[in-house]
Amino acid sequence: MSLKNKLKRMKAHLSDKDTEQENNNQKTDDSPNNSEAIPYMSMWEENHVRPYWVDQEYCLIREVRYPLTFKQGRYELGECKRAVQAWENSSFNHPLSTKGHSIDDLFFFDTETTGLRGVGSTIFMLGYAQFTHDEVIVKQHILTHPGYEVPLYMSFLENVDYSTLVTYNGKSFDWPQVKSRHTLIRDHVPKLPETGHFDLYHASRRLWKHKMESVKLTEVEKHILKFERKDDLPGYLAPAIYFDFVERKHPEGIIKVLDHNEKDILSLISLYTHVTFQLLGQDSEQTSDEKVEAGKWYKAAGNHTASGSLLEQAYSDDLHNHSAAHSLAFFLKRRGDIQRSANLWLKVCENGSAREKREAAIELAKYYEHQDKNTAAAIQYTQKAREALLEDENLKPSARKNEMAKIHHRLQRLNRK
């Protein structure tokens, strides 16, 4: 049985009996597939919106096209093509790499919902953008009534590409909401491969949490992409506007939600471009700290070559960047360059953060004990580690207690030598 037929056959399960009765009460004598049956259709058409019918139920679909020269913040949309090609030319492995994919495989996806989570939360807008050879097409699917989810998801599932989603916190929120909204939808939406979902929220946290209190998309737009929204609808108002639309059918408010959602989607394209250029060292304005964070991410992903390359660049750019020196020292130790790593840790031990001082002092204690065979120096740096631990105000009491126990154990062992 085709997906379309299954959706039709099982659509009754998408709403409870009360909602079904409400739908029946609202039916008119208008022809169900006639646009004249839709309130304010001329206004919808002026905003590039058309209906999509399944039996007597419909959703609305908006389609807008942008040239590749359209600029969203720092980048023209077409520069994302250069980002995808950069991954293709790179030997670096990374969770955000599109190697093996073309630009038109990417599916920039965002939703609007009536609430954050839970049974009562409903997705009322599904938006996405895809590339063609000469433009970007943005499509948005609107749930016109809480009981009309069949046309919403049917129209969406005709186009969605599950393997190459690009979202902002969509791995934790948007896509699980789509998958679990109802058993019917969950049965027909395959599980996303771990490597096939590029979540830019987690990328933003990785790269910029050291300098931003919040990595909400609007904050990243403002501080990273150099794009500030003008007269944009606050996202928290979207649910109230949707409920008003369901009651009155007037498009004015929901069109503002469409514009807000569209900005989110276009920013995903620019943000993916920027993150790619940061990870591949192709952002001429990348700071030393950003290179450190990119290097740490590569290390966490198991790509030590790329990690080392970025950490070397970060330290070379700023010899006073003690975070760069600290991370580079760990890379050098792993590579076997013990002496150079020790020299870097000597600097970190004097000028790094409390955590970096503690970790550097422990590494120097190991170096002096096992490489230099200098027990007195090993004891000295173990004591420095204890001092740094006492200075660290960011540690939880349980973690502080655990670290202190390790340091005392090391001191006792060294004093017995």
Tally of helical runs = 18
Shape: elongated
Mean pLDDT: 88
Largest sheet: 7 strands, mixed
- Under CATH at level 1, the class of the largest domain stands as Alpha Beta
Short description:
The chain has 417 residues and is of the alpha+beta class. It is 53% helix and 12% strand. The strands form 2 sheets. Strands 1-2-7-6-5-8-9 form a 7-stranded mixed β-sheet, with helices on both faces. It has a two-stranded antiparallel sheet with strand order 3-4.
Jot down its keywords.
single chain, 417 residues, alpha+beta, Nucleotidyltransferase, domain 5, Serine Threonine Protein Phosphatase 5, Tetratricopeptide repeat, 2 domains, two-stranded antiparallel ribbon, 18 helices, 9 strands, DNA-directed DNA polymerase activity, nucleotidyltransferase, EC 2.7.7.7, nucleic acid binding, transferase
Explain what this protein looks like in three dimensions.
- The chain is built from 18 helices and 9 strands.
- It has 2 domains: 3-279, Nucleotidyltransferase, domain 5 (2-Layer Sandwich); 289-415, Serine Threonine Protein Phosphatase 5, Tetratricopeptide repeat, CATH 1.25.40.10.
- The chain is elongated, with a radius of gyration of 27 Å.
- It has helices at 3-10, 17-26, 41-46, 79-89, 149-157, 174-180, 183-188, 200-208, 217-223, 238-248, 252-279, 288-300, 304-317, 322-335, 338-351, 354-371, 375-391, 397-415, and strands at residues 49-54, 57-67, 71-72, 75-76, 107-113, 123-131, 135-142, 165-167, 197-199.
- With 417 residues, the chain is α+β, with helices and mostly antiparallel strands.
- Residues 1-12 have a biased composition (Basic residues).
- Residues 108-275 form the YprB ribonuclease H-like domain.
